[in-house]
Amino acid sequence: MTANAQNRVDDAPLSGFHKKLALYSSGGPFLDGYVLSIIGVAMVQITPQLDLSDSAQGLIGASALIGIFLGAFVGGWLTDKFGRQLLYTIDLIAIIVCSVAQFWAADPVWLFILRLLIGMAVGADYPIATSLLAEFTPRRYRGPLLGGLVVMWFVGAATAYVVGEILLSVGHDGWRWMLASATLPATIIVLLRHGTPESPRWLANKGRTDEAEAVLKQVYGPDATIVDLTAEEHENVDVKAIMRSGYGGRMLYISVFWTCSVVPLFAIYAFGPKILDALQLEGGLANIGEALITVMFLLGCVIALLGVNRMGRRTLVIHSFVWSGLALLLLGIFPHAPSGVIMTLFALYAIIIGGTQILQWIYPNELFPTEVRGSAVGLASSVSRIGAAVGTYLVPLALTSWGIGGTMIAAAAISLVGALVSVLWAPETRDLALHEAAALHPRTGGTAETAGRPASV
């Protein structure tokens, strides 16, 4: 392959198509943040109306996370088997249907089931949308665009708190309108995604070279050909063999890193107002405080996006885990500090954790080849959601048994475990083409030789 041929894909300029694809792909993370956050506000009304115990609160709060665990793996397998484009809209239609149905939920069981199904659809979108975006995006922009999807998670979360605060004034049925409100953004995203082309890398991998070349010409210009994709080496690995192959080490690191990143964050989002209440930020101030912290999460992700290519993936993830973990540790040690100190520490956690958040979308898509990219992203997402669901379920019980100080110390410990495994295993994939980052034995020098490989593998 000539350098010029390679430049037409991996070194292509950022086009309007890439920007639109990134925007449309961000719809899934937006809905994820919205769905997981709106329940925290809605729970204020749901708990007394449905007479929920601490255990029932935990189950409903964790239901979408359990669904994501199931949906992410299934969605990853389906997108590798049937393509990215077909499932790109189907999963969001399921969110629309189940969101509307939540309005008529009459008991905790039905609410749990519907939120479980919504979580499955949200989880399925993770590997579908990120694989599609990764396989179209030039190397220079791959990190920022993939990481930018996480920004939309926090935009969705912030929007949920604003909408939730407004709908609390509706009255007795405010929580029903809150949970059903996800229908509107989901419908808009479905309409925008219509007509998105299939990934040429997936098409070529399936032997549909004529279709792949047609898409390449549509996106990269008339000179683009199927030759531009031949640099990717097929590692002959399938889903069943992932953990037995050289990719097992990569899967181990991604799963642990992702889990440590999301467990404290999702617990905070599912029960944000309750946690802030326990920190003596009572009433409306707790909801306002949660909204402000969400803005800080968003700011942290933006800062991380600006630094991900400059600092590199490895440096960013280690520092993000270490300093955010220390902020949580201080919250645990000083749970009765003045409100200003509490809000400052939460804000620091929210800003600094942005590095780990954007890398949840970058690392998995860079470290696995086309034939299993969707499955690998789905599997890692599923594993991380096991921990997140357990953590979310335990928050009400932990607050009762350990108090807010012990709960925050536990969250800090999880973040510091993430720092440790990142020091040992975090790869550096900056400046690598997608096929180089995904290869088990890259032929380029420098950081490429340890890309995606835990030291123990």
TrEMBL record:
Provide the coiled-coil residue spans: none
- List the record's Gene Ontology CC terms alphabetically: plasma membrane
Question: Where this protein primarily resides, as one coarse class?
Answer: membrane
| N-terminal signal peptide | none
Tell me what topology the record assigns in the membrane.
Multi-pass membrane protein
Q: Name one GO molecular function term.
A: transmembrane transporter activity
Q: Where in the cell?
A: Cell membrane
Matching PROSITE patterns, A to Z?
MFS, SUGAR_TRANSPORT_2
Q: What is this protein called?
A: MFS transporter
